[in-house]
TrEMBL record, chain A:
Family: Belongs to the leucine-binding protein family.
Signal peptide positions (record): 1-28
Name used for this protein in its record: ABC transporter substrate-binding protein
Keyword terms of this UniProt record: Amino-acid transport, Signal, Transport
Highest taxon of the lineage: Bacteria
Biological processes annotated in GO: amino acid transport
InterPro entries: BCAA_transport, Leu-bd, Leu_Ile_Val-bd, Peripla_BP_I
Domain Leucine-binding protein: 30-364
Coiled coil ranges: none
Automatic annotation (TrEMBL), chain B:
Transmembrane feature ranges: 12-32, 38-56, 86-103, 112-129, 166-186, 216-236, 256-278, 290-308
GO molecular function annotation: branched-chain amino acid transmembrane transporter activity
Principal location: membrane
One cellular component term from this protein's GO annotations in UniProt: plasma membrane
UniProt keywords, alphabetically: Cell membrane, Membrane, Transmembrane, Transmembrane helix
Natural source organism: Pseudovibrio exalbescens
Keyword Transmembrane appears in the UniProt entry: yes
Membrane topology qualifier: Multi-pass membrane protein
Subcellular location field: Cell membrane
InterPro entries cross-referenced by the UniProt entry: ABC_transp_permease, LivM-like
Keyword Transmembrane: yes
The name this protein goes by in its record: Branched-chain amino acid ABC transporter permease
Length: 385, 322
C-alpha cells in the first residue's frame, strides 16, 4: 500500500515536471564569456570592468536582449595570472561554448589567451593597453583602450605645435612607465623630436630631484615628459617646481584622475596631459558627440554601484556595446564569423574612449582625436585645443 | 594480493591507472587542459616532496627555479638557436647549478636559513625577469616556441590532434617518470640518509652522515624538478610572464605539497590535483573562492596533520584492522 502510494506520487510529480518542461521551451541564450582580473594586483582594472559588464547585461536583458534573445554572461576571475586566464579562456571556448569573449584586463593575460581564440575562431575584445595586442593585426582579436603609443603621439603633436624639438624624459620603471617610455622613444622621430635626456625612477621612490637636476642641466632642453602611474608622477611634479624648472611638463594619461591634482597640489598648475573624454565629461562641449554617451555611462554606473567611474570600466562598456551592435548588424547571435566581420566593420561607433572606425588593418579604430589635451588650471582640468 | 606488491610499484600502478581512466570521465576537451596543469604542478610538487618530505627542508623560492626553466624555453630557442627540448634541459642544468651554488653555503647551517635564502633568491629571479624587459619582455611577458609535439604526431600518423590531449599524455608520462625516480630514491641509501636528516640532524651526523651534502643533493634535485615543471608550463601555454616566478607561486607549490602530505609522492600529487582543480570547481562561488580555499586548507591543517593522503590511508587501514 505504502509502496504503491510512493510510486503514484512520483509518477505524478514526474508527469507534472515533464509537462512544465515542455510548456516552457528552452530559450536560446546569447552566451558571452569574460575573464578579468577582478581580484589581485590588477583588480583596479578588473573590478570596474566586471561591474560594468554585469550592469550592461542586466540593462540589455531588461530591454529584451540582443535580437530578442537574452544575454548570459559567463564571468571568470583570473586574478591577472596569465596561466589562469589561459585556462579560463579554454574553458569558455571548449566547455561553455560561448560565442564571443570580452576580457583580459592586462596585456599579459590577453597575450596568453590570443592563440586560443585565434585557433577556436571566437571573436575576442581585449581591455588591455599595449599596442602589441592589435599590431600586427590578428583576425579574431580586437581591443578598446587607447594605446600608450597614442598618448606619446598626442603629447608630441602638442609639442610640435608649440615648436618644441628637444625634450627630456623621466619614466617610472613599473610596467606602465616602461612600456610608454619605449613607445615614446619609437615615435619621437616621426615628430622631429629628439630625446636628449632619459632618466628613470623606481615605483616606490620618494625623491626625484637628482634625476630632474640632470635633466635641468642638459643643454637645449625645451620640455619634459613623465610616463608613469600612481604617486611617482605627483612627486616628480612637486620636485620639478621645487627645482624651479621653468619648462613645460607633460604627464601621461596614467595620472588622469583627481587624486593626482590633490597629491601634487599647486605644483600641478600648468601641467599638460592627454586624457580620455570620460574624465572630463562635464567640461566637454555641448555639441561633442561623446558627451551624451559618457554622461549616461557615468550616471548609470554610479547609480548601479555607488562608486565613481574610471576609464577602465569605460573600456568594458565600449567592448560590450560594440559587440552587441555587431550582433545586431550581423543579425545573428551564434555565427562567430559573421559577428567578427561586423565587428571589423564597426564604423562611427561612439564609445567612452572615442569614435571607433575599425577596418581589416585596424582592430582598435581610434585616432588621436580620442585623446583630449588637458592643462591643469586652478586645480581643475581645462581642455585646450 | 595488492599488499604483496612492493609499495613503490603499487603507488606507480595506482597513478598510471588514474591517469589512464581519468579521460573517460572528461565531459569536454577543456578537462585535458586541467589534467595537464595538474601533472605539471605535480612534477614541481614531487621535487618539493623530496626536499620537504624526505629531507625536512623548506624552500620558499621554488617558483624562481620554475621561472628559470620557463624563460630558458622562451629565450634559448631565439637567442641560442636551441631546440625547445634542449632548452628544457638547459634550464634544468642552470637551475641545478644555481641551487648548488646557493645551497652550498646555506645548507651548512641549521634551522630556517634555507627558507630565508630561497625566499630572497626567488624574489631576485622574479625581479630580474620583470626588469630586464629587453630580454624577457618585462611584466607583459613573451611568446614561447612550440615543442612541436602535436605537429610531430600529426605528421607521423596523419591525424588531427588537439594540443591539450597530446600534452595530457606527454605530461602524464613525465609525472610517472618523476614519481618513479622519487619513489626509488625513498628506499635508496641517499633516501634513507635524507629521512634520517629529517628526523634528527644530530643523530644523522653522529652516525657519520654528511648532512650538508645530502641536504644539498635534495635541494638540487628539487630545483631541477621545479625547473622542468616551469619549462613544461611555458611550452604548453606558448606564452610566459614573470608571474610564474612570483612569491605567491612558491607558496602555492609548498601548500600543495603540505596539503596532500609532504612525506608521500602520491600525497603531493593529490595536493596538486586538489589545488589545481578546486579553483575551477569553485568559480560558481566566485566571490567566496578564496574563503573556501582558505577554509579547506585550515581544516586539513587542523584535522589532518600529516596531510590529506597519509591521514586517509591511516584511517582506512585502521578500519580494515578493526
Amino acid at each position: 500500500m505504502k509502496l504503491k502510494q510512493v510510486v503514484k506520487t512520483t509518477t505524478l510529480a514526474a508527469a507534472v515536471s515533464a509537462m512544465t518542461a515542455l510548456a516552457t521551451p528552452a530559450l536560446a541564450e546569447v552566451l558571452i564569456g569574460s575573464t578579468l582580473a577582478i581580484t589581485g594586483r590588477a583588480s583596479f582594472l578588473g573590478d570596474p570592468e566586471a561591474k560594468t559588464l554585469a550592469m550592461l547585461v542586466d540593462e540589455i536583458n531588461a530591454a529584451g536582449g540582443i535580437n530578442g534573445e537574452p544575454v548570459r554572461l559567463i564571468q571568470y576571475d583570473d586574478g591577472g595570472d596569465p596561466n589562469k586566464a589561459r585556462t579560463f579562456a579554454t574553458r569558455l571556448v571548449e566547455d561553455d561554448e560561448v560565442v564571443a569573449v570580452i576580457g583580459g584586463s592586462t596585456t599579459g593575460t590577453t597575450m596568453a589567451m590570443v592563440p586560443i581564440f585565434e585557433e577556436a575562431e571566437v571573436p575576442f575584445i581585449s581591455l588591455a593597453g599595449a599596442v602589441a595586442i592589435i599590431d600586427p593585426v590578428k583576425k579574431w582579436v580586437f581591443k578598446t583602450p587607447h594605446t600608450d603609443r597614442m598618448a606619446c603621439e598626442k603629447i608630441f603633436t602638442d609639442m610640435q605645435a608649440n615648436g618644441i624639438s628637444k625634450i627630456g624624459m623621466i619614466s617610472g620603471t613599473g610596467g606602465f612607465g616602461k612600456s610608454m617610455r619605449g613607445q615614446c622613444m619609437d615615435v619621437a622621430g616621426d615628430f622631429d623630436i629628439e630625446i636628449v635626456a632619459d632618466e628613470t625612477y623606481g615605483p616606490s621612490d620618494s625623491d626625484m630631484t637628482p634625476q630632474l637636476t640632470n635633466i635641468k642641466n642638459t643643454d637645449g632642453i625645451q620640455a619634459v615628459v613623465n610616463p608613469g602611474f600612481g604617486q611617482g608622477p605627483a612627486i616628480v611634479t612637486r620636485n620639478y617646481r621645487q627645482l624651479g624648472i621653468d619648462l613645460p611638463l607633460y604627464q601621461s594619461h596614467g595620472v588622469a584622475s583627481k587624486s593626482f591634482i590633490e597629491l601634487a597640489g599647486d605644483a600641478a598648475e600648468g601641467v599638460r596631459l592627454p586624457a580620455a573624454a570620460l574624465l572630463v565629461a562635464n567640461n566637454l562641449a555641448e555639441d561633442d558627440p561623446q558627451k551624451p554617451v559618457v554622461m549616461k555611462y557615468i550616471e548609470d554606473y554610479q547609480t548601479a554601484t555607488g562608486e565613481p567611474v574610471s576609464t577602465f570600466g569605460g573600456h568594458a562598456y565600449d567592448a560590450f556595446k560594440m559587440l552587441a551592435a555587431a550582433m545586431e548588424t550581423a543579425g545573428t547571435t551564434t555565427d562567430s564569423a559573421a559577428i567578427r566581420y561586423a565587428l571589423e566593420n564597426t564604423s562611427g561607433f561612439i564609445g567612452t574612449a572615442g569614435v571607433v572606425n575599425m577596418s581589416p588593418d585596424d582592430h582598435l579604430g581610434l585616432d588621436l582625436s580620442a585623446f583630449k589635451m588637458l592643462e591643469i588650471r586652478d586645480g581643475d582640468w581645462t581642455i585646450i585645443e | 594480493m595488492l599488499t604483496r606488491i612492493p609499495p613503490r610499484v603499487r603507488a606507480l600502478l595506482i597513478l598510471s591507472i588514474l591517469i589512464l581512466i581519468a579521460p573517460m570521465l572528461f565531459p569536454s576537451s577543456f578537462y585535458y587542459r586541467i589534467g595537464t596543469l595538474i601533472f605539471i604542478n605535480s612534477i614541481a610538487v614531487i621535487g618539493l616532496v623530496i626536499l620537504i618530505g624526505y629531507a625536512g627542508q623548506i624552500s620558499l623560492g621554488h617558483a624562481g627555479f620554475s621561472g628559470i626553466g620557463a624563460y630558458a624555453c622562451a629565450l634559448a630557442p631565439t637567442h641560442l638557436g636551441l631546440p625547445p627540448f634542449l632548452s628544457l634541459i638547459l634550464g634544468a642544468v642552470i637551475s641545478g647549478l644555481l641551487a648548488w651554488f646557493v645551497g652550498r653555503p646555506i645548507l651548512r647551517l641549521k634551522g630556517h636559513y634555507l627558507a630565508v635564502a630561497t625566499l630572497g633568491l626567488g624574489m631576485l629571479i622574479s625581479m630580474v625577469l620583470n626588469n630586464e624587459a629587453q630580454f624577457t619582455g618585462g611584466p607583459d611577458g613573451m611568446m614561447v616556441a612550440s615543442l612541436g609535439l602535436t605537429k610531430g604526431l600529426e605528421g607521423l600518423f596523419d591525424v588531427n590532434l588537439k594540443t591539450s590531449v597530446v600534452w595530457y599524455w606527454f605530461a602524464g608520462v613525465m609525472v610517472l617518470l618523476g614519481a618513479w625516480i622519487a619513489l626509488n630514491l625513498y628506499n635508496s641509501p641517499t633516501g634513507r640518509v635524507l629521512r634520517s636528516v629529517h628526523d634528527s640532524e644530530i643523530a644523522a651526523k653522529t652516525v657519520g652522515a654528511d648532512v650538508a651534502r645530502y641536504k644539498l643533493v635534495a635541494f638540487v634535485i628539487s630545483a631541477v624538478y621545479a625547473s622542468i615543471a616551469g619549462s613544461m608550463l611555458a611550452l604548453f601555454n606558448r606564452f610566459i610572464t614573470p608571474d610564474i616566478a612570483s612569491f605567491l607561486h612558491s607558496v602555492e607549490l609548498v601548500t600543495m605539497t603540505v596539503l596532500g602530505g609532504a612525506g608521500s609522492v602520491l600525497g603531493g600529487i593529490a595536493g596538486a590535483t586538489l589545488l589545481t582543480a578546486l579553483p575551477q570547481a569553485l568559480t560558481v562561488f566566485h566571490e567566496y573562492e578564496h574563503v573556501m580555499l582558505g577554509l579547506i586548507m585550515m581544516l586539513v591543517m587542523i584535522f589532518m596533520r600529516d596531510g590529506l593522503l597519509p591521514t586517509l590511508r591511516k584511517t582506512l587501514t585502521r578500519r580494515a584492522i578493526a
